[in-house]
Amino acid sequence: MHQESPIIRRQSKQIMVGNVPVGGNAPIAVQSMTNTLTTDVAATVAQIKALEAVGADIVRVSVPTMDAAEAFKLIKQQVDVPLVADIHFDYRIALKVAEYGVDCLRINPGNIGNESRIRSVVDCAKDMNIPIRIGVNGGSLEREIQEKYGEPTPAALVESAMRHVDILQRLNFDQFKVSVKASDVFLAVESYRQLAKQIEQPLHLGITEAGGFRSGAVKSSVGLGMLLAEGIGDTLRISLAADPVEEVRVGFDILKSLRIRSRGINFIACPTCSRQEFDVISTVNALEERLEDIITPMDVSIIGCVVNGPGEAEVSQIGVTGGSNKSGYYLDGKRQKERFDNNDMIDQLEAKIRAKAAMMAPE
Ligand code: SF4
């Protein structure tokens, strides 16, 4: 029921990662990365499926060895979501996973080695329609660039990215996206801003090594929020030292809060105070957990009293506003005769939300 996002997106070229469009007018794709041993096929497949279940559009898997490449083949056969292989330096691994159906290669062409190796990877990507992600990281800049700039700066990150971009452009390859990640919010944000002016390709956003669950989510929200609000960013990954499933949830929450992309329920809840007529916090926590399977975008406001309850309920699909013993219930912004018993709030709300979701189209 809330309005469209006022954000005007940067116009980027669209590339395809498997069947997922990235860039152009495509929805901003949410990614995560497995943290299992890739050679443990069963564990990696299980994690990819868990990521898919919470809405991951694309999943990255690191492929550090030829054994991991062989495992990748088996993994790829068992999952539907497009897979990106994360490869550093070894061009033979890139060729191998291409043979096994990889949907995107995360490899920096400038790090592959001599010209013939670069050409073999780029030619293979071209022939097989596989896009590439150039991934620059403030913590691993080339030595010459580090020496030139003394420390990671936005200009240093962009220069590093453009080296790789120039190689691909020289080889007439334009199916790529780029990231310039840093753990410092200002460094990352300014690097992306500068890069956005220089290339047309989609940008993959991330604040790298952002931290643990809470601090990393906050840092990522601040950094990515600044960029997304300026229209920069076509896909994102939240890096958390936590379960990767949380990365996907946080990614969607960021997009949801900027009204860029909705998936599932947007809960509007008051922080509670002594005026609350039912236990708002436990109601919201229980419903967030119970309703995770719902992908239909919907605003649900759960407010403890009449101070702010009606105002929020009027702009939500489902709203509840706390009253003594029984609370007011709103559907599509309209107050209903039916009221909820405060002692049975969670079950009643769950039933109403499920019924409403069943009538609405999913994302
Ligand atoms: Fe307190 Fe009511 Fe405000 Fe919730 S809406 S914080 S219960 S005054």
UniProtKB/TrEMBL annotation:
Keyword Metal-binding: yes
UniProt source species: Moritella marina ATCC 15381
InterPro entries: Dihydropteroate_synth-like_sf, IspG_bac, IspG_bac-typ, IspG_C, IspG_TIM, NO2/SO3_Rdtase_4Fe4S_sf
EC class (word): oxidoreductase
Residue ranges occupied by any IspG TIM-barrel domain in the UniProt entry: 13-251
Protein name per Swiss-Prot or TrEMBL: 4-hydroxy-3-methylbut-2-en-1-yl diphosphate synthase (flavodoxin)
Entry EC no(s): 1.17.7.3
Species classification: Bacteria, Pseudomonadati, Pseudomonadota, Gammaproteobacteria, Alteromonadales
Occurrences of domain IspG C-terminal (ranges): 266-354
GO BP terms in the entry: isopentenyl diphosphate biosynthetic process, methylerythritol 4-phosphate pathway; terpenoid biosynthetic process
